[in-house]
């Protein structure tokens, strides 16, 4: 039961059903999800470890959003994406290359006016690259980090010209992985994520205006 409550509450936070800064009283959550307070308490403990909720004066609340957090997330993600691209260039198999090429081709076929389709195809390419690293720790860290980024829902790919740039950047990453050039792959991935960071900060600032 605790696992089910944790997953439901986690999904609700990431999707924005429970908004940034929202108070999370145990009794209210127990009534909302139709369970006792014990699995709620356990779910909140795990979500605190995940960095999705934080302690407040009156219990727990959804962790707030801020430009500082965006910088923190991308500071880590730039390093991890570089590391995973480097590892993929060293360890990729022919099957990995086939999957990466298919993911890149799928991106090229996406309707650039469909934000959801763009975000889905983009994530598929990155997750395929993660798998090509054959490093379970890196994959786990990047998966967890994506939960934090998902609380900033608007995709950077809707920015004018960004989709075309992302396709070119992915192409450069793929070429470096194909040619087994780990340093080049890392540099391409890091530049790609740095560009996404800058756009994300601009988008967040625009929300506050």
From TrEMBL:
Record has Transcription regulation as a keyword: yes
Domain HTH gntR-type per the UniProt entry, residue ranges: 1-65
SUPFAM superfamilies found in the cross-reference section: GntR ligand-binding domain-like (SSF48008), Winged helix' DNA-binding domain (SSF46785)
Keywords for this protein: DNA-binding, Transcription, Transcription regulation
Gene Ontology molecular function, alphabetical: DNA binding; DNA-binding transcription factor activity
PROSITE patterns reported in the protein's UniProt record: HTH_GNTR
Gene3D superfamilies with a match to the protein in the record: GntR ligand-binding domain-like, Winged helix-like DNA-binding domain superfamily/Winged helix DNA-binding domain
Pfam families: FCD (PF07729), GntR (PF00392)
Superkingdom, taxonomy of origin: Bacteria
Name assigned to this protein: DNA-binding GntR family transcriptional regulator
Organism: Lipingzhangella halophila
């Amino acid at each position: 039961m605790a696992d089910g409550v944790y997953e439901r509450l986690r999904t609700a936070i990431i999707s924005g059903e429970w908004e940034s800064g929202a108070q999370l009283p145990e009794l209210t959550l127990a009534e909302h999800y139709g369970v006792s307070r014990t699995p709620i308490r356990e779910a909140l403990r795990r979500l605190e470890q995940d960095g999705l909720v934080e302690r407040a004066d009156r219990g727990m609340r959804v962790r707030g959003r801020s430009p500082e957090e965006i910088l923190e997330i991308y500071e880590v993600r730039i390093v991890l994406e570089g590391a995973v691209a480097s590892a993929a260039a060293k360890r990729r198999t022919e099957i990995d290359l086939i999957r990466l090429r298919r993911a890149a081709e799928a991106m090229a076929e996406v309707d650039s006016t469909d934000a959801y389709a763009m975000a889905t195809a983009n994530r598929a390419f990155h997750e395929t690259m993660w798998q090509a690293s054959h490093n379970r720790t890196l994959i786990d860290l990047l998966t967890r980090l994506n939960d934090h980024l998902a609380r900033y829902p608007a995709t950077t790919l809707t920015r004018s010209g960004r989709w075309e740039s992302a396709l070119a950047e992915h192409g450069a990453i793929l070429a470096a992985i194909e040619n087994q050039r780990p340093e080049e792959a890392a540099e391409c991935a890091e530049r790609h994520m740095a560009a996404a960071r800058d756009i994300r900060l601009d988008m967040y600032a625009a929300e506050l205006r």
